[in-house]
Amino acid sequence: MVSPVASAPASNAPVPAPTRSRVGKRLSIVAPCFNEQEVLDLFFDRIEAELAALGVEYEIVCVNDGSRDHTLAVLLAHHQRDPRVKVINLARNFGKETALSAGLDVATGDMVVPIDVDLQDPPELIGQFIDAWEAGADVAYGVRVDRSADSLLKRLTAQGFYKAFNGLSDVDLPYNAGDFRLMDRRVVEVLRQLPERNRFMKGLFAWVGFRQQAIPYARPERAAGTSSWRYWKLWNFALDGITSFSTAPIRVWSYVGLAAGLTAVAFAGAIVLRTLFFGRDVPGYPSLMVVILMSFGLQMLAIGALGEYVARIYQEVKGRPLYVVMDRYGFDS
Ligand code: UDP
Ligand code: MG
Question: Which three-class secondary structure state does DSSP give residue 256?
Fold first, then answer.
């Protein structure tokens, strides 16, 4: 006899999300900083005002990503003022994705919020993130409703990137979501266990799954300083994202090859027939050149695509640590 306890639930209604309470929980803010001396004081003012009103215990983990200005000195001054500000000093500039990973590795909170220090991620949103977390979301992420602050070119390229990424890969990136989000500890642990060195965080954030909830917000301009992202860097960033989440760019070449082969066969047939019926005409130098140049171009493209993947395999296989920590301030061990 089957006991009623062990039997399946009668309806297949979704499992209700757990409700949680922030009481007694810890929040970790993770802030990667690269040449941010102008904006840091403002950042601490704004975020600390916000955090004080949230009713949670908190720490602010700042990762100095090899800044060449006085960022480290400013961070240390804040650490002196308030031990809840903790500082990881990386040995050089490793890039934002890696700096973020370094911060996630040392953050101890039950909830973790990566944030840009230039105040483009409004700290006021953290309260809404926590509300969503209490209502059962494991990830609450900010979505930019309005990109009118960006140039037309940046908007178009971003749009194209999301289209290409979502078309080519199995995970779907939510449009216009950045790194600004709140993650439950379980999600952070999954992220930390991912072994890859090429850390395309947007993709990894989407890959982990869990209960994710979007929170819309208007993204302001940078408060001070300058963005360190240029188009070339963005292009490489997009390439990293697509190659680490999709193999379509190398698989497509078998089909391109097949199509080229079939075209060649059809073309050969047409030439034979034409010669049989109309005799020989002047040898076709232009068409020959077109075919040669085209097949050369296609081969180079295919080899290039292969190279992108081989280079990344090489990078992963070397197994170097993701980052090198030079100093830590405010951590017990
Ligand atoms: N950042 C970093 N390392 C880098 C570049 C940027 O840690 O090599 C940090 C930077 O200090 C800021 C965040 O990443 O807190 C976002 O950078 P930025 O504002 O330049 O990018 P954007 O907002 O233009 O995407
Ligand atoms: Mg910014």
Answer: helix
Least confident of 45-49, 206-210, 329-333: 329-333
Best of 30, 33, 34, 161 for a ligand 1 pocket test (most atoms within 8 Å of beta carbon) = 34
Residues that place a CB less than 5 A from ion ligand 2? 116, 118, 120, 222
Q: What values do phi and psi take at 104, rounded to 5?
A: -65, -30
Percent of the chain with pLDDT over 70: 92
* Residue 10 clears pLDDT 50, i.e. is over it: no
Domains of the chain, residue spans: 26-230+321-329, 248-318
Confidence tier at 9 by pLDDT (50, 70, 90): very low
Give the DSSP letter of residue 326.
E
Burial 226-264 (b: 16+ CB within 10 A, else e): eeeeeeeeeeebbebbbbbbbeebbeebeeeeeeeeeee
The answer to whether residue 14 scores a pLDDT higher than 90 is no
- Bridge partners of 89, per DSSP, are 64, 327
Output phi, psi for 178, to 5 deg. -110, -150
| Run of H or E including 240 | helix 231-245
252-274 pLDDT, tens per residue? 887 887 888 788 888 888 888 88
The closest residue, in CA terms, to atom 21 on ligand 1 is 227
**Domain 26-230+321-329 homologous superfamily, CATH:** Spore Coat Polysaccharide Biosynthesis Protein SpsA; Chain A (3.90.550.10)
Q: How far is the CA of 209 from the centre of ligand 1 (A)?
A: 25
